Amino acid sequence: MINIIFYHPTFDSKLWIDGINKRVPQANIRAWHDGDTQPADYALVWQPPREMLMSRTRLKGIFALGAGVDAILMQEQRQPGTLPPGVPLLRLEDTGMSLQMQEYALATVLRYFRRMDEYQLLQQQKQWRPLTPHQHDNFTIGIMGAGVLGSCVAEKLVGMQFQVRSWSRSAKEIPGVKSYFGDDQLHDFANDCKMLINLLPNTPQTAGILNKSLFEHLQEQAYLINIARGMHLVEGDLLRALDSGQVAAATLDVFVEEPLPGMHPFWSHPRVSMTPHIGANTLPEQAMDNIAANIVAIEEGRRPAGLVDLDRGY
């Protein structure tokens, strides 16, 4: 019998318990509650209480119920022992998130490329004024992050005949994309980009990377799309870049503080578009397929997908 404990502050636990049981019939999965010290082989979690995992050193794997693991790693920093030492941490790989990110990125890129945001402002002012269209050959799109999500977005944009380049912490190759990596190549990557799309993992090394220094290397009147994490963006630097015209407009799905406080200037800024962290949601059916396959792999002695390097943070 494989014992599995489940905790998520908002997900329907019955849906997940039934779904995992269907996929792993030999599993006994239960919703964890305070005081539950019964044996467990695996844990499925999102923002788990410290006492849920801290003493469970015999776990074979902890599955974070999202593409990013920064939330649980930050919990470990704040409350050491949240993650029991030596237990593998796994993140969901793709599970339908790539398609959602492609949809979000493509919709936003085309909105700016075809200047629909500006036409909306002109409509509000009752102005009938055709604008000079952007051209593909001088509308270079830079994607920050070349993992599963970044690669999928890049490939979709290449298929739309955009000039695409990528930057990542380590060397990556994406067909049709000019690749940059490492701190030394960051500004070369940003030079002359008309648009930045941020899909980086949230690590101490990437916090605050969307800042004044980076914005200054973009084309004037550039665009920013942040669909990774709010901690990547220095919010004051973006507001100043918008006011100076260095950045023409920004679409933000993630924020340092969520929900965004009601007095925050992003709410009323005419060149900021916002969504409430909906760029890519965890899709239960695809996520459970991924988790079940990984449990089987671990039980059979194979390497699972999505194993997190705790030192790198992803």
UniProtKB/TrEMBL annotation:
<keyword id="KW-0520">NAD</keyword>
<feature type="domain" description="D-isomer specific 2-hydroxyacid dehydrogenase NAD-binding">
    <location>
        <begin position="107"/>
        <end position="279"/>
    </location>
</feature>
<protein>
    <submittedName>
        <fullName>Glyoxylate/hydroxypyruvate reductase A</fullName>
    </submittedName>
</protein>
<keyword id="KW-0560">Oxidoreductase</keyword>
<dbReference type="Pfam" id="PF02826">
    <property type="entry name" value="2-Hacid_dh_C"/>
</dbReference>
<dbReference type="InterPro" id="IPR006140">
    <property type="entry name" value="D-isomer_DH_NAD-bd"/>
</dbReference>
<dbReference type="InterPro" id="IPR036291">
    <property type="entry name" value="NAD(P)-bd_dom_sf"/>
</dbReference>
